[in-house]
Amino acid sequence: MGKRSRLLVTVIMIVFATACVKETYNMNKLAKEYQLSPTWAISAVKGDVLFSDMVKPTDTIVFDQNKLVTLIFKKDSIVDLKLSDFSKGTIVKTAIIDPGTFDVNIEDIFSHITGDFQIISPVLKLNYTNSFADSVKINLNVNAKRGSKTVNLNLAPFKLLKPNIPVQQVISATYIIDKNNSNLPSLISLPPDILNYSGSATLTSQVKSGVDPTDILSAGRMTGSLELEIPLELKINNLAYADTVKNFLKTDSSSDDKIKPEDFQLLRVILTANNGFPLGVSVQMILFDSKSQTNIKTVDAASLLSPAPVDATGKANGTTETTTTIEFNKDFFGSVDKADKIIFKFTLNSTANGIVRIYSDYRISFTAALVVQPVINLN
Amino acid sequence: MSGKIKHLFAIILLATSSGISAQNNQTLYFMNLPQNHLLNPALRPGNSLYIGLPVISGINLNINNNFVNFSDVFLKRPLNDSVITFLNHDYNPDKFLAKIRDKNFFDPQTTIQLLGIGFSVGNDGYVFLDVNDRIEGNLVIPGDFFSLALKGNEQFAGSKIDLSSLRGSMRYYREVGLGFSKNITEKLRIGIKGKLLFGIADASIVNHSLGISVNNNYSHTFDANMEVNFSGPVKVYTDSKNNIDSIKVDDKKLNNASGAKDFFMGKGNMGVGLDIGATYELNDRITLSASITDLGFIRWKTDVTNLKANNQFVFSGLNVSDVIDGSKTFDEVGQDMLDSLKNAFVVTNTAKPFATYLPFGVSVGGSYNLTKSFSVGLLSYTRIIEKQLREALTLSANLNIGNLFSTSISYTAENHRYDNLGAGISFRAGVTQFYILSDRIPVVFNRIKNDKTNILIPDTWNTINLRFGMNIVFGNRQKEKSDKPMVLIE
């Protein structure tokens, strides 16, 4: 065969003989955990809405001709005075306006609110009809209560307009109560749980007491209703709304939910907003243990929305773009089961903490992206 | 009968999916075996006649991949001797991804010789006939696909996940080839083999474009322009909106003998193929050779399904404006989104015949005879699969002792690996000739043991290659040629 042949065969044998074992793998010790933990990012939701899309005009929420948003509360028939109220055989000069209450139905909301909040230009309108020939002077007392706080209207007595007898038998008119003649802004800015009103109507005629009034007052009647208008011209400084709910993230061991918080390494919400409202919002989410009264973990979105710039009148004249990242990491998810409550705190501020106006054509557009790193168990 | 047919089909598919397939047998090229004419029809063995019996004369198995080995899947932790897989949370995915390429291919192939005959004609002619069953697969997975699966899409923000190189095909066909080789001149020998191809089953993905753009705000644009063609017992059902509802195997055809016979004969899907080759003796020591093999195509006409999708879909989040203004509920908005997604990926389902072109190979080689029996060879083989090129370069030392014994040792650079040591051996005992060869003989193994087993598994998986069989051979053409008269007559 020759030298070369023997060499070739020898090499082949050596190749086979020297096949080596690199490592020994003991499959009894194979860790049977098969999982993937990719990071998935997706644009989850988006929106582009006007204020008028979010809030539809009703009897209570009104957009005026300039689109300024105004809240209107009405109370009909707060006063109905007739001849008989002034005469009981003889004329008495003063009739009593029956006391009543004006419930604005916002107790539930404002019980969770703290902070500085001012309504700048509320208007209280006394809409009345008067057919008394004589002048009627009204002394209207209104106070607002919230908890232990009380704010009085401090309105000076005022005269109603009277009909121009005999040409005019009855007159309808409105008496305006606002910041110029009362303490109404402070009263509304309390904000009140309830408004109490009472008062009196005094005739200012020259008729002397004790004279049979039927010749003078026979056709007289005065009716009135109250209308509270609150244009959304306001000033907000760290107005905070806080609410405590049951910890809905806490897993129940008996639950059949396939997705649990501990299945996530990371959950990140990226919110981008183009805010045309002159209001800024920040949010805090706190995992709270009510037994030890301690905050377990806090997630803070300090500038969730930044307020839009405003002009001299307080109207927004541009938009502000913000991008906020809210991150829930493994540490957070690991703490979920330690808390039995979650506290949400929303803080609202007007532009530069100054006076702003809310118009119905304000727009906000936003996108929210989710970045999720789930732990996907394959076995 | 139907059960046996199903089992046979399952075995073939299992064999295919387990990656039994051969790209080329570089080691075979310079060995004195009848099967070397499969690589170059101009080559002929030293015997006068060979007969290849069904299956036992030739089984060729091959898997090629360029991205994964044993140690990429399993990792041993030295501290406590435990073993983890790449899917364990302690396994750094970046380590796995570092070995992933832009295009990761996985090519399983198998060839089973059903019949082979070759015989000498005249002084230098050689005629040969082969009937082979071939199953070939080709899967290309873009590197971005692995990154997406293991690490998610956040890393792609501001860029595009390019999946346009994703492609795949699996084909089962039978080739009946008749060939002839002859010396044209004293030095030049030409060989040619014409093949009739019978397509049995095919599935292929034609990817014109596929990608996902991830914008910085995490909105996504999905675009796909793809076709999937099937020829085989597969039914695709679509709903009224042309969305794929289900895909089922229609095995009714295989449940009776007639249907199974028609299916496995493949007469409805015909094609043609061609191998051409040449050898040239530069001098009495150096021989050059070249060949082109497996040129051809098959036209698929029976049980054809074409699925085409050419769509783009932009997802930028659920638009909740309608929810905020009260005109829709969140469920309605979500349903609208799902409907849009379904409508965006409308599939057209047709049954038009289609053609597939076989991957072909180009071999260029040279050998240098150090002695009459001992030579060294250099062989380049390039396989062209659609737009992909696979290159293998082999250096071999070959010992061919008449028809009795043939052996070769080879070194091949392929699949980005430069440690492929191969060998082949054949010997003749009477009229039977046995052979076995491999382009890559694993020399490094990992021992896998548990309570019941203790086996050796090759550490490197880039090439698994094996050809073996038994031929019936007669005559010794080389001995007859070299016979000289005992008496010199002047």
Describe the structure.
- The complex is a heterodimer of chains A (about 375) and B (about 500).
- Chain A has seven helices and 25 strands.
- In chain A, strands 9, 17, 19, 20, 22 and 23 form a six-stranded antiparallel β-sheet that branches. A five-stranded antiparallel β-sheet of chain A has the order 4-5-16-10-14.
- Chain A folds into two domains: about 35-55 and about 235-375, no CATH class; about 70-230, Jelly Rolls (Sandwich), CATH 2.60.120.
- With about 375 residues, chain A is mainly beta.
- The model of chain A has no long low-confidence stretch (mean pLDDT about 85).
- Chain B has helices spanning about 1-15, 70-75, 95, 145-150, 255-265, 320-325, 330-345, 475-480, and strands at about 50, 60-65, 75, 80-85, 105-120, 125-140, 160, 165-185, 190-215, 220-230, 235-240, 245-250, 270-280, 285-300, 305-315, 320, 350, 355, 360-370, 375-385, 390-400, 405-415, 415-430, 430-440, 445-450, 455-460, 465-475.
- Chain B is globular, with a radius of gyration of 27 Å.
- The termini of chain B are far apart.
- Strand 1 of chain A pairs parallel with strand 25 of chain B.
Give a nutshell description of this structure.
The complex is a heterodimer of chains A (379) and B (490). Chain A is mainly β.
> Biggest interface, and residues per chain?
A-B, 54 and 61 residues
Tally of strands of chain B: 27
CATH level 1 class label of the largest domain in chain A: Mainly Beta
Work out the helicity level of chain B. 10-25%
